[in-house]
Amino acid sequence: MALIDSVTGGRPGHPARTLPHDGAPILTVRDVTVRFGGIVALDGVSFDVAAHEIVGLIGPNGAGKTTLFNCLSRLYDPARGTLAFEGRPLDQTAPHRIAALGISRTFQNLALFPSLSVLQNVMIGMHCRTRADFVASALRLPRVRAEEGRIAERAQELVAFFGLQAVATHPAAGLPFGTLKRVELARALAAQPRLLLLDEPAAGLNHEEVEALARLITAIREEQDVTILLVEHHMGLVMQVSDRVVVLDFGRKIAEGTPAEVQQHPDVIRAYLGVGPTDTAS
Q1: Which residues partner with 25 through β-bridges?
Q2: Distance between CA atoms of 91 and 105, rounded to whole angstroms?
Q3: 247: which strand partners?
Q4: Whole-angstrom distance, CA of residue 196 vs CA of residue 5
């Protein structure tokens, strides 16, 4: 089953958002260094992500890509450097407040609730946007019912956006892997992020599903007004959807530019192929 055959537009009734001016950084990474004992996982990495951009973050295995994502998610604290979202430093933000701040993330391994329906899994993604306290929920006050209605409405919108209507009431357990990938994306968007961190979304997908994923990532940016930072090993996908690409190798940034510029960069060729562009085979 293809990841998605088509993407319907719009998100009616969704509240307007205040984003940085076009071209202004929504995410700023400055001189970020992470050490694990004597191992330097990130070494002075700096780059920006502008609002409404899709930026690919690539590099060989062990380059530091997931480590950087874990810093953005506040799972790791850098030894040096700063991370800022919409001009606000992240170092004082607790990990459980990152989603409420406006940053959502998917993971390499799916982490859905198998016994819950697709719709319920998507609704869980909106937990960080709820305001009802325990007492109000226990008493079923009108504002609680109104909030639940808004959550259900938004979840239904996302189910439709990702083409999941046919399985909306089906438990996540037993669904095809490509379908579960869509559910995870829908849950991440349910938190109403302004920045979406995609950690290897193409992993485990076939060629047809990867092609559909490329269309979907672009549609998420265009239809959902979301900026995207993408970690991915599938180079065809990265080069197809990214406005810019940042390349890491052994924890250092070795290149940054458009997909075409990065593909021709000698350090990138060397990192991936082990040879320079002028080397010849013996």
Answers
A1: 50
A2: 18
A3: 58, 255
A4: 22
Q: Which residue ranges of the chain lie beneath pLDDT 50?
A: 1-21, 133-136, 138-139, 277-282
Q: 270: which 2 tokens?
A: 């060397």
Distant-in-sequence, close-in-space partners of 166: CB < 8 Å, separation ≥ 6: none
Q: How far apart are CA 204 and CA 158, in angstroms?
A: 23
Residues contacting 142, CB < 8 A, separation 6+: none
3-state secondary structure the chain: CCCCCCCCCCCCCCCCCCCCCCCCEEEEEEEEEEEECCEEEEEEEEEEEECCCEEEEECCCCCCHHHHHHHHCCCCCCCEEEEEECCEECCCCCHHHHHHHCEEECCCCCCCCCCCEHHHHHHHCCHHHCCCCHHHHHHCCHHHHHHHHHHHHHHHHHHHHCCCHHHCCCECCCCCHHHHHHHHHHHHHHCCCCEEEEECCCCCCCHHHHHHHHHHHHHHHHHHCCEEEEECCCHHHHHHHCCEEEEEECCEEEEEECHHHHHCCHHHHHHHHCCCCCCCCC
